[in-house]
């Protein structure tokens, strides 16, 4: 696995809403790449950027500067048009912007003690949500759901999340997920499921949003680790796969579908009569790990491109999962993981390139088995 010993120039990275593109913000400006072939699609040396968020494959970007240039304050959100190379609209705030999310209807701006919801087309403010200290700008947004679900931390002392329907907007529910404060959250494509991890990082849980109930609980590991990124597969209904990366440098796959997890119905029944701390131990993990996917303690950003049925070399039915990983040391990696119904798995590093060099080199590695 290639790695760079030079200091990281990457400040932020993100995938667009369908994972077809990924963007990186650097000390010099921004770059946008095609996830499928590594082609550099757009580059602009605007100066240091803390946030770069795309709106699907349109020309609209939401960007926030580092403050090194007077016009690029960390308190100013710029809606930037890549075709005209001009700002469409600037929004100024009293404190630094920590996160931005958007879809075709809504624009969400997260500050340390409040979150603003805007109508994207008119940039009219629809809701101002007061929050507790959210110093990391933690949030989850479901851009492909009609309700435009938004999740924010409910507490700094325990792992609870408040879920809002920003299409209205209104508060839907509170999900009490972990004992320790939240470190990562992500919605499934349609917003029906919310995955969470705490600062401890040993458990990853999946919740049914409409009922504010836990549907799955997975043990990532025994020792604490910081969860850097969570991502569901793009399935319309119940996602097949949830993936996670952490400070340990490993990639974790958790399978959720009923076909692979025949005991899920039994555990649903058990969870109605047994306390959650016990069902955590009984809930089948269906957990696979690839070790040393990225260097330890290097922040990473995940996307699941696809999950498909396929035939492996032994002619057994298998799931083929394609995962994209962008790391803060300047690398893009595409992994293909095959998993049979007998729970045997193997992985292939399909592509790897250093996007700071804007060069693509496809690498084919021998197939390897994973835990």
**Alpha-carbon distance between the termini?**
18 Å
Evaluate the radius of gyration.
Answer: 20 Å
Please bin the fraction of helical residues.
Answer: under 10%
CATH superfamily of the domain at 8-136: YVTN repeat-like/Quinoprotein amine dehydrogenase
Shape: globular
CATH architecture label name of the domain at 8-136: 7 Propeller
Kindly report the CATH topology of the domain at 8-136.
Methylamine Dehydrogenase, Chain H
CATH C-level class of the domain at 8-136 = Mainly Beta
| Strand-pairing-aware structural class | mainly beta
Mean pLDDT: 86
Which strand-content bin applies to the residues?
A: over 45%
Strand line-up in the sheet with most strands: 25-26-27-28-29
Structural description of this entry:
A hairpin with a 4-residue loop joins strand 18 (193-198) and strand 19 (203-208). The chain has helices at 264-271, 276-282; strands at residues 10-15, 21-26, 30-34, 40-44, 49-54, 60-65, 76-81, 86-92, 99-102, 106-110, 114-119, 125-130, 140-141, 149-153, 159-165, 170-178, 182-187, 193-198, 203-208, 213-219, 227-232, 241-246, 251-255, 287-290, 300-311, 317-327, 331-340, 345-354, 368-369. Strands 25-26-27-28-29 form a 5-stranded antiparallel β-sheet, with no helix packed on it. A 4-stranded antiparallel β-sheet has the order 1-2-3-4, with no helix packed on it. A 4-stranded antiparallel β-sheet has the order 5-6-7-8, with no helix packed on it. With 371 residues, the chain is mainly beta. The protein has a domain at 8-136: Methylamine Dehydrogenase, Chain H, CATH 2.130.10. It is globular and about 55 Å long. Residues 2-7, 261-285 and 359-371 have low confidence and may be disordered. The longest helix is centred in the C-terminal third of the chain and has 8 residues, at 264-271. The two termini are 18 Å apart.
